[in-house]
Amino acid sequence: MLPDRNNDDTEPVQMTGTIRRVLVVDDSRLQRRILVASLKKWGFDVVEADSGASAMEICREESPDLILSDWMMPGMNGLEFCRNLRKLNSDNYSYFILLTSKSEKNEVAEGLHSGADDFLTKPVSSDELRARISAGERILRMQRELSEKNRIVSETLDELQRVYDAIDKDLMQARKIQESLVPEFSCSYGESNVSLLLKPCGHIGGDLVGMFSPGINRLGFYSIDVSGHGITSAMMTARLGGYLSSSHFDQNVAMEQRFNRYFALKPPEDVASLLNARLIADTGIEEYFTMAYCTVDLRSGLLKLVQAGHPHPLLIRKDGTMEYIGQGGVPVGLVPDIAYTREELVLEQGDRLLLYSDGFTEARLENGEMLEDEGLMDLVRKCDTGQNGQEFLDELYWNLTQIMSKEHGLEDDVSATLFEYNGP
Questions:
Q1: What is the CA angle 10-11-15, rounded to 5?
Q2: What's the confidence (pLDDT) of residue 398?
Q3: What is the location of CATH 3.60.40.10 in the chain?
Q4: pTM for this prediction
Q5: Contact (CB, 8 A) for 226 and 287
Q6: Which ranges of 282-361 does DSSP label H, i.e. alpha helix?
Q7: How do strand 342-346 and strand 352-356 relate by DSSP bridges?
Q8: Which CATH number fits domain 180-420: 3.30.70.660, 3.40.50.2000, 3.60.40.10, 3.30.70.1130?
Q9: For domain 8-149, is the CATH number 3.40.50.2300?
């Protein structure tokens, strides 16, 4: 029973409004009447149930804020009722106080394990009941505040996911556009061949490779690496793809029309200077790029190279000997009015020239070190010399993936241009 204590039970319990609806479950009508009378005096909306089964029906329709349930009842007892209650998928958590004459620790532990939040020992003290309800009020308030914050976080994450999906869709489309900048990854020019490799570290990248030929025995090919990563770098590659178009020679800055009849290749150093002037003139653009650009006369094997901050091209002679060529140079778009110089060498039949981005040499290996120049030579030596150019580049990239760090993965775009000279 709830003993009177100088009529203190007529004083309302000071609540914040979290607990409004209380369910009293007891097979004793007298016990329910005593509890209900006090709870109503304290301002609660009270419903009654004379069994665990009927209490479950009430909870299925609308979960109460607080449940006062007797432990010992015929049929479904208080523990079984509590277990079944916790199985309901309800957004509203009910604070469960089990009324019992049991006081053994193992029995209390059993009740908590079943999902009860608190215990009251019969006969129930009015003061203690109000104190336990106040404690439940605080817990419910924190729980609902947390639930509301979780709801906000969940909705925010859903919105972020929708935004991410939209961005991801746009990036996939951007990748298709970027791939269109390299319509062919392998092409033959007489007996010679150019093969390309382009592996961005994300959806889109800042590397660009390409080739073009304005006529028989004349060929230009390049490897470009734009500073930074992501959308800005990819936009720059799209712009450079237009500057070095393989299909619209009138827009290609590496060519000039002569006598309104045919196109000729400009000297490589002039192409670098022209691109540098264009980038410097564009205010608001902070990106720059490195480039290795070559022209070759397929009749004589004379190759002209300009290296603008790009990794040194690797010359692979027919007999398997290798050497890095070039003097380095300054990246394009970094310093105004810079003078670029060209280098020349004569290729022999069976020689190959590999242009590549620093995604190769700066790839992180399992030991934490970078591949660097000597490591790239080792990768080349592992490749089958009897393969065609595209197969060679594919194997070269595969060899790289086998030794690079699995933890860090591909941290930079990887690209390459391979020129195979087989004479006129």
A1: 130
A2: 95
A3: 180-420
A4: 0.66
A5: yes
A6: 358-361
A7: unpaired
A8: 3.60.40.10
A9: yes
